[in-house]
Structure formats: C-alpha cells, structure tokens
Amino acid sequence: xxxxxxxxxxxxxxxxxxxxxxxxxxxxxxxxxxxxxxxxxxxxxxxxxxxxxxxxxxxxxxxxxxxxxxxxxxxxxxxxxxxxxxxxxxxxxxxxxxxxxxxxxxxxxxxxxxxxxxxxxxxxxxxxxxxxxxxxxxxxxxxxxxxxxxxxxxxxxxxxxxxxxxxxxxxxxxxxxxxxxxxxxxxxxxxxxxxxxxxxxxxxxxxxxxxxxxxxxxxxxxxxxxxxxxxxxxxxxxxxxxxxxxxxxxxxxxxxxxxxxxxxxxxxxxxxxxxxxxxxxxxxxxxxxxxxxxxxxxxxxxxxxxxxxxxxxxxxxxxxxxxxxxxxxxxxxxxxxxxxxxxxxxxxxxxxxxxxxxxxxxxxxxxxxxxxxxxxxxxxxxxxxxxxxxxxxxxxxxxxxxxxxxxxxxxxxxxxxxxxxxxxxxxxxxxxxxxxxxxxxxxxxxxxxxxxxxxxxxxxxxxxxxxxxxxxxxxxxxxxx
Amino acid sequence: xxxxxxxxxxxxxxxxxxxxxxxxxxxxxxxxxxxxxxxxxxxxxxxxxxxxxxxxxxxxxxxxxxxxxxxxxxxxxxxxxxxxxxxxxxxxxxxxxxxxxxxxxxxxxxxxxxxxxxxxxxxxxxxxxxxxxxxxxxxxxxxxxxxxxxxxxxxxxxxxxxxxxxxxxxxxxxxxxxxxxxxxxxxxxxxxxxxxxxxxxxxxxxxxxxxxxxxxxxxx
Lengths: 481, 220
Hints:
The structure holds 2 protein chains of 2 kinds. By secondary structure, chain A is mostly helical. Helix content of chain A is 77%, strand content 0%. Chain A has helices spanning 7-24, 28-48, 64-93, 99-121, 125-143, 149-184, 193-199, 205-223, 231-238, 241-267, 275-293, 300-321, 323-355, 366-369, 371-385, 391-406, 408-433, 449-463, 467-480. By secondary structure, chain B is mostly helical. Chain B has one domain (2-215). In chain B, helix 4 (97-118) runs antiparallel to helix 5. The longest helix of chain B is centred in the C-terminal third of the chain and has 29 residues, at 176-204.
C-alpha cells in the first residue's frame, strides 16, 4: 500500500516522534492537544492495518491476533488522552503537578504507547521482551510522578516486583531460544514467531515446559495474577488516573498477549505439557481472591484495581480452558473489560477531583451532587458487574456456559467468584453513588465524551456485535487453539 | 582442548554461584558492594571466555560492559550514595544467616535438578551454564526477599541480572539484540533506582523499606 505511508511505521513512529516533540515543547494546552492528535493518528494508522498489512519481517509482524490488540490499544490510548487533557488540567490548577512534570508526563505517555505497540507488533521474542520492559519502566516513572510518600512507595514496589517478573520472563525467553536452537540453528531465526511456530513440534518438550513456567510467572506478574499481584493495587491507586486507566485497560492485556503467544507455541508441541490447567488455576485463584478483597477496600481506585485482577483472572481462565468457544469468550471479555474499566477510571478520576479525596468513606450521594458523573459511575459498575444486556454479560455468560459443558465443578467456582465480586462492588457503589451526600463537593469540569463513548460501545456490543467482528474473533479463537 | 575450555567455563560459572553465596551473608553495605563488584568481575571473565570459545566477538562487548559498568562504575556510584545518605556504618540484620544459606543451597540443588534433567539432550557446556545461571538468578531473588534495605535489594536485583546475562551468553549464537538490551535495561534500571533512592531519602530520611510500609494507603 501507498509508498510513503506505511501503517506499521506509523503505529510505531508517531508515538516515538511525538514523545521527542513533547519533551521539547512548553505549555499545557499545546502539549495536551498534541498528545491527543498523536494518539488519534496512531489509532487511524492501526485501523488501516485491517485493510492491508505488510509481509512479516524478522522483527515485525501483523496478523489476525495482534491486529485486534493493536486497534484496541490505540483506541483506548486515544480516548484516555482526551480524558487526560481535562484531568491533568485540573491537577495543574490545584498544584499537584508542576509544568515541568507535565512535560515529562506527556512524553512518557507517548513512550508508553510506543512500547505497548512495539510489544504487540514484535515478531521477535527478544524484542517483545525489550518492549515490555520499556513499558514497565515508563509506567514506574509515571506512577511515582506525584512524589508523595504513597506514590513513591507504590512506584518502588511496582519497580521491584515488575523487574523480578521481567527477569523471570527473560529467563524463559532464553530457554525458548535454547529449545529452538537445535532445530532452527543458531541466530535470529530461533527467536522469530513466524519461524518458531512452523517447527514447534520438533522442539525439546522438557525445555519448553520449564520455559513456560518461567514465562507464566514472569509475564503473569505483569498481568497481575494472584499471588503475584501485590504491585497492582498500589500502582493503580497512587499514580495519575489516566495511567490507572491505561494500566488496567491496556498494559495488563499486553502482558497477557505475550503469554498467549507462548501458549500457542506450546500447544503446537504434542509432547509438551498442556499450558491450560496452569492458566486455569492461576486465573481462578486470582478471581476468587480478588472478589473477596473487594469487600474491605476504603480507597476507590484501589477497589477498581482489585476488580481488574478479578477480570484478568476470568480472562486467563477462559484462555486456559481453550477451545474455540472459551477463546472467543476470553477475547470478547478482554475487549469489553478494557473499554469498561477505562471508562470507570475516567469517572473515578473526576470523582476524586470533585471530592478532593479517594477515600470511599468521604464520598456519598454522588448521583445527587454530580448527577452525570454519579450515573456514569453507576452505569460503569453495572457494566463491569456483568448485568445483562451489557457486553460483559455476554462474555461472562459464554465463559461460564462453555466451562459448564466441559468441567461443571470449575464453572461453579467461577460463578461463585463472580457473584461474590459483584456483591462487593454493589455494596460499595451503594455508599458512593446513593444516599445522603457526604464530604466536600465541587462542580465537575470534566469531559464526559470518552467515558460515555466507551460505555456506549459496551452497551452496543451487548445487544449486537457486527458479524464481521464475530467472524474475526472466531478466526482468532481458532488460531489460539 | 575441548576438555580445558569446558572446565574453565564451568569453573567461572561455578565461581559466580559461589560469589552469590558470599553476597548473601554480608551484613555491611560496603562489604556487600565489594562482593557485587567481584560478582560482576567474575561475570565479565565468564562472558569473555564464552566469547573466546564460541568464536563470537560481539560477546566481548557484553564482557566489557560487565567489567566497566557493573564492576566499576555502579559500585563506585553506590559507595558515594551510601556515604551521602550516611548509612555506610549501618549494620543490616540479615534474616538468619544460617537459614538463608540453607535455603540458598536448596535453591542451587533445585536449579541443578531442574535444568540438568530437562536439558539432557542439549550440549553439555550450555546445560551446565544454564543450571548455574538459574542458581544465580534464584540466589539473587532470595537476597531481594531476605533484605529490608533498598540498597541491598538493588544489589540482589543486579546479581539476578548477572545470572541472566550468564544464561544469555551460554545460549550459543543468541542474537546480539538481546545482550545489548540487557545491558541497556540495567543502565535504565540503575538510573531509575538511583532517582528513587534520592527521593526516598528526601521524603523519609531512611532507606529502610520497613519504614515505608507505614505509608500504605489503606492502613489507619
């Protein structure tokens, strides 16, 4: 397609160039606008990948699987940048951020977008690892950006746990190379996805098994699976809210995508262990654990962080079950969760600004004092809880029914976990959104467009998913095995 | 010749595990940093030897980075930070030296059992290297878990990375991309940690992470 305009180059190049520009440019209005424009252009470039994709090179690859992820990532990246513009403006007004840090923030935002796109588009397991490491480092810096006690502690914890996870993942990556080397020969080929999958059946299964355990622990830390999740609530609660939205909605998905790729590799080798049961176990543990943890949360962002762990658990569970239907459900759930959770964080960010606190005890009666925000949050929670007819209901329903058909007792645990989580969420929602207004209040200066756009998409998906999309997801689900 | 190259590689990798053990029970920060410098030095030698026997000149770059950056610059810089923070006299309570050593031995045994068993068909040099590398990685993890002090945790993390470099160089013919990325990530990681240490110092007047736990959002 069209000589000058190469979608892949654009998806990677626009954020990189924008990051460099944003470091240099002064002024909040200008940089925030530029940030929005850059993410929008990246999104357009990502969409154009649907219509024509380049041949894979040893470093870059676009196929049916990652195309979905890239479009989702760039879309949420774009809407979050719109939200971020109004959110950050407020933070600047109340002096939580200085203009110098703001410049740094925007540059880091673009760098994070670059890193995530690179991780998704990489055809090389080494490069994918480098990209995820880069994404981790940029988010560490962003989480610590407020320079408060809590923010620094959260950033430190995230950094230490994230690095250990990343280190284990690298060890796993090296082991995969070791397994591939006798078959594919030394050098680049033994690290390229498209080459690896052609010969995966001939790899040494024992080595692949150990590699997968390391990869699961390593990237699983980044996905936030229990018991490796300890960094996640702190990082979500103490960083700027747009970063919480991007972390929950996107970065967790990127880490899970890496795991899925390796799972596909293992599935091609009949002698290797089945990765499914491991993922099912970790997913289920995360779900049940996070569901119980929802009850005693006092911080609103922390609560939704635990809800993210819960949903990543469900998604990992679905992919662990495998098969066309469960994989389809997993993909759908991942998409819906990204959209819904970031919408919730958009609402929560403005609510925290209006109330001047993140403590749930100091909030109440939001639907009376700030009706749009309050009802927006209610809608978001209803969506994330999986009530019909919204999108998450569809995907959770599919996960449960497909499990019920195969391993009924697992489905019972799954349903219990989901129900416990839903009850916990509604309990808190009741205090926040309804009843007597409590705590300080102010007029919201918010841009509601991103939040309601996401919720509208989730709502629409619950009622009607275009057949093209269904066919696409079904195709990818088959690929995942 | 085959026998000698193998033995030397084996010896160097084994020494790296040994130095990891030495790090494990140092209770003074200075001594710990010296041990880390030694760790990096042994790594540099080991990588250089791999470069020689594999006929892979690009690995010399990795060896040079290990030598210059990790064995000299980082320890010196950390020395300075420690002096500036005024914690160079502090003696750190290492959680039960005896049990840490025992756990360490258990981890080494574990990595031997796991790696030697699964790599039965790989070439002997690579498999021994990989087993040692895993031992170094696990010992680094153990150190991060048993230490409370931010500087020692950092040393633990850096030894862990050394183990990864050992594994990556032991895997014959692994593309250069990876080695450079490892070195690069350590550089970035170091800067990040450095910045954080200064901020932590500013805010809390201590680098004892136990003190940080008080500021957890949800307590009280």
